[in-house]
């Protein structure tokens, strides 16, 4: 497999891990977020939608994105998902009350949920059936690792800055990953299973379009 293909998959896996980390990244930040929203600490249960809003968006996208990735291409969907995640991060960082926080978190979840099926589809494009076990396992592992490390990431940022910094870091990372994925795919040289098969000279290479940015 070409090096560019491995780098592309690695970037997508990092994006999956980072989005998964946001599931519970707010756990330690909730008291500060509630203070910003002017909600008393003894009513912290009202902050539950900040977590569940992300999960709702995340889960809602899982069954939808696979088909969209088939129609629009893996890279465009990955980039689009990262941009939605970045937009949600910005909305959350600028939030001043509970509804705006929940709206931002929901957008983050929509973007994050789109990354998983698009990355799994990318694995199917890059690896033949008999070699997909390891990369699929790696994607699943980094997703779980991200969920576990999310609270730790939040704690580190909170030790250095306020809660808004968590989402500003998310914004920056998502934009960098989106730009890197788009640039790498735009350069060409990404080998797919289909591109490695012998084809007639006049056969249209439809599969390559699935990886190119729109």
Automatic annotation (TrEMBL):
Q: What is its subcellular localisation?
A: Cell inner membrane
What domain of life does the native source organism fall in?
Bacteria
Entry keyword annotation includes Membrane:
yes
Give the InterPro entries listed for this entry.
MFS (IPR011701), MFS_dom (IPR020846), MFS_trans_sf (IPR036259)
Topology class, membrane: Multi-pass membrane protein
Q: What is its main location?
A: membrane
Q: Where is this region: Disordered?
A: 192-214
What protein name applies here?
MFS transporter
- The organism is Nocardioides guangzhouensis
């Amino acid at each position: 497999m070409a090096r560019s293909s491995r780098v592309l998959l690695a970037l997508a896996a990092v994006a999956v891990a980072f989005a998964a980390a946001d599931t519970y990244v707010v756990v330690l930040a909730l008291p500060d977020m509630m203070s910003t929203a002017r909600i008393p600490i003894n009513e912290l249960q009202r902050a539950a939608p900040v977590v569940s809003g992300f999960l709702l968006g995340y889960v809602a996208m899982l069954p939808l994105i696979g088909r969209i990735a088939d129609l629009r291409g893996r890279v465009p969907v990955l980039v689009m998902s990262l941009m939605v995640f970045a937009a949600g991060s910005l909305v959350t960082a600028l939030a001043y009350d509970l509804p705006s926080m929940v709206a931002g978190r929901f957008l983050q979840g929509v973007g994050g949920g789109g990354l998983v099926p698009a990355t799994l589809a990318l694995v199917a494009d890059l690896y033949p059936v008999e070699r997909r076990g390891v990369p699929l396992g790696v994607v699943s592992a980094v997703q779980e690792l991200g969920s576990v490390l999310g609270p730790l990431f939040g704690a580190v940022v909170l030790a250095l800055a306020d809660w808004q910094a968590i989402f500003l870091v998310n914004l920056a990372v998502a934009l960098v990953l989106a730009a890197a994925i788009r640039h790498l795919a735009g350069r060409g040289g990404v080998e797919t299973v289909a591109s490695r098969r012998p084809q007639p000279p006049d056969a249209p290479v439809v599969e390559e379009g699935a990886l190119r940015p729109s």
